[in-house]
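Researcher: Here's the sequence for the chain we discussed earlier.
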Amino acid sequence: MARRGRRHDIRSNAVETAAFRSRALIGLAAVIVALGVLAGWYFKLQVIDHDIYATRSEANRIKPRPVVPGRGLILDRKGRILAENEQAYRLDVTPEEAGDLHRLVTELSRIIALSPDDIIRFHRERRGQRSFRAVTLKLRISEDEMARFALDRWRFPGVEVVPYLNRHYPYGDLFAHVVGYVGRTDESDVERYGPTHLLYPQTGRTGLERYYDEALRGKIGYEQVETNVEGRALRRLGLQPATAGADLRLSVDADLQQAMVMAFGGLHGSAVAVDPATGNVLGMVSLPSFDPNLFVSGISHTDYRRLMDDPARPLFNRNVLGGGPPGSTIKPLVALAGVDSGLRTPASRVFSTGEFFIPGQRRGYRDAARGAGWTDLRDSIARSVNYYYYQLAYEMGIERFDEYMTRYGFGQRTGIDLLGENAGIVPSPRFKATRTREPWYAGETVIAGIGQGYWIATALQLARGTAAIANGGQLHTLHLAAERRDGFDAPWRAVPRPAPTSITDHPEHLRAVQEGMVTTIHGRGTGTRMAIGAEYRMAGKTGTAQRVSRRGSASTDPRNLPYHLRHQALFVGYAPAENPTIALAVTVEHGGYGGTTAGPIARRIFDAWLLGKMPEMDVDAVTGAPSAGAGTAPQAAPSFDAVVAGVRTAPRDASGRFPGVTP
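Model: Thanks. This is the structure I predict for it:
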């Protein structure tokens, strides 16, 4: 046994050598295979997948960046800028790069003033977007804030200061209801226009900014920039330029607009001035107004609450969204319908007893002029004889009455380039059937003849109808934007609009109506106070729309009523009477009588347009703002005489300007 054990313990060099060789071969083969795999992998990376990884590398190094174009300018008829762009800077945050956003906001608020509104808006907007997209934390950061941020920039990955063009309205509240304003783009805009709209920092909200938003904002361009490992731009490698927004030149005149505000002398209401020959709007005010610059970067909760709680409703555009009974201002067009329908001739006379009775009824409809005696078309317009129109509307019938008023542009939009225009209402059984099951009564036809009852007419419609009377019968589409240009060096092109329609086929009938409107002011009519000291002739019609009905036969003096129950004062007219260059509609809320309140306002507007005389108004000693544009409700019932007498023609200063007028 011991001999066999020693034989096994003897080592065989041959066997060990063979084993070593086999192991070495196996190892060598493994190394060769590994090197082959590695070489193949390198080949795949460098040759087969070269294009893929080259593209990815370029994508990491070169990034596309949107180029937002400048929003188009809005100018008045003389080229004065009503809406412009200012260079500003905003703070953008990319959530996926920024880390803990709540901590980030807390840290940023120590070097940049962030309001609660900024923080709430930021968190609301980032939740609706993908994390790799930048979200604006604050607009219009100051130079001091930018300097402090630059020192601590390394602490805030994913946070960038981005230059942009901020909208600015140099005339403040003067054109708030015409030009409108832009606001920060939000998720509702993205839903409406698509994901790429998010690249536009601001979107039109109201007025012309909203109506022409697509043309004004232009088209986004792109640039290729080389970035470092931190993603910061080093240089620009390529550029696809943006297309700038179109510029708009309006037909409105900034001086006339200012004069219209000043002519109201602090009263509330609206006015529209139109070029009778074209339908171009020369001026349009809704008072009180507001400063649209408050909305551009996001209005604060406090400011918005203040505007919403104001009982005078400064945000409400009275010309576009409002409306009410036209009162006696509708009589010239009712008279035209009477002669065009063949029920009357211009010389036909009616005897006004002071109270009109529908056959078979005991209730009478009183004439404000009481017993006016014999009256015809011209005289009935001048003296505003209700009896003439009670009887005419009754004989015409409500269906035909509706047909003529629709032809004159009522009950339909004027086509003005503003969204949300109120179409108004022409009294008719068809309209009443949508509101009640009661039948149409003859008395409702009678009062429709003097602009009462179911009537809803806007100042835009009244100005349009008056312009048609002034220009010989052509009913134009009202328009604010007269021309546009798609590029700074591009020519101005007229904004297209529909052709006008004719309101009458009988020019002699229209002349009779025009003569009646001239007699209203320069004869024995209701607007004769307007003619005192006038250097030109005017044509017009006063109106008073009641808010409180009389009881029995007793008259109601609106000056004795509480302020909020006083009648609406109206005036429509044009000047010069022989060759009109301006047609006007004025509505004064709670103004009392049209002849004593709205008429004098219209006269001041005529003077401003025809003679260059600006109405005088008080200027706030602290803010320097015109009191009429302050947007506050009267603290006490104003005296009519005080209001009328308080607005006078202002003398020019040494520089030839009017005091209180923004240059």
